[in-house]
Input
Amino acid sequence: MRFLAVVFLWAGIASAESFNYQALEKIIRDNDVRTVDDLLPLIPEEYRRFYLLMYESRSAQAGNTFPSSPRVILYGKDSTFMMTFTKDPKAPPAVDVADNVETMQWNAVTKKFEFRELVFGEGKDPLENPIVVNPIKCQACHGKDPRPNWDPYNTWAGSYGSLSRLGCDTMQPGTEELRKYQEFMSGNRHGDRYKHLPAEIPAGGSCPDDPEKEVTFRNGGHKDANAVVTEQLTALNHQRLRRIITSSSRFAKFRPFIMAQAKGCVSRGSLESFFPPGYAEAEGAMSYEAALNDVINTGRTDFAQRLASFLRNNKGSAHQSIRQPINFHDPDDALGGQFSHRFEVAQIRILADRMRLSTNRWTLAVSDGQYDFATPNAMPSALLRGFHEQLKGELGDKSCEQLRELSVTALTP
Output
């Protein structure tokens, strides 16, 4: 199930900033909403300005997603509450699925993502039965400790504006993606449920970088919406991962090492000095080189898969334009074998391995085990730096050498 966001109004317009799942339920109850079509106009316009359009979907609603009738993801200003909807499944081409709205909400207290599904149709009250948080249906796609499914920067196969370059989400002439987008804009864009999406902002003089070769996807607030959502969701996911690490029974022993990572004390050459001699061998743990090779090989495989998905509808796009911003930089490797943030990510891989934590579904990517934590404005090390505030009361005044001594002591059997 994919994430979504909705907003509301009943006697007046509710604030877009205050909109969350609880507010959504109130709007449905107060207005006795029985259909998605009745719900959408009640969403504050300020909230509706922020949308993504998926012309192909890997969600449970893939069968009701079409280039001329894309799946809409509303994400608000900060992606902490998201809502998705598709076209009316009874509208041509008719499909045998329920008309629903799916939501994802970030819980800032528990540091968890919460998924819910509201099923409409045939005059049914979507709140007739208690709404389950993170039902099995959602866990099947998003995991038992669920998180959004969203590919890393800078390509998003199936989303209009699927290549982010130079602050713009672009489409290139001659591609199937652009052709489908233009057909949608001249067709359903101003009818059906899509008429409730506010008009696109002007492209501006600097977007796209080359107006002769690129077309920019814009919504009511952003010209780089796919990149913005990637940035926002990754920051939330970092909080989720720090909660997972902190909850481990081995966290107490690893606190000095984690603080050393947060302070930038750990380098490729110094990493093993933060562990007792022979620690990796005794624990059956990965060496740094093994972790680095794992990161590079996984990155190469993941990039190949994403590139193949992207090129299905973008065969006219320059390969170089795709590879360079995606954080790979080996001109002799068609799949980008050099992962530019590989040393930072290898530290995360080492930490997880030695704390005996599975890294499956650590990133937002649909593929398991993917390690690309990079965003347009933050490197993977941001995940580790976030521990500084949490641990500074205990370890903040310690030097790198002191943290090294404390780490060796804590990890010595």
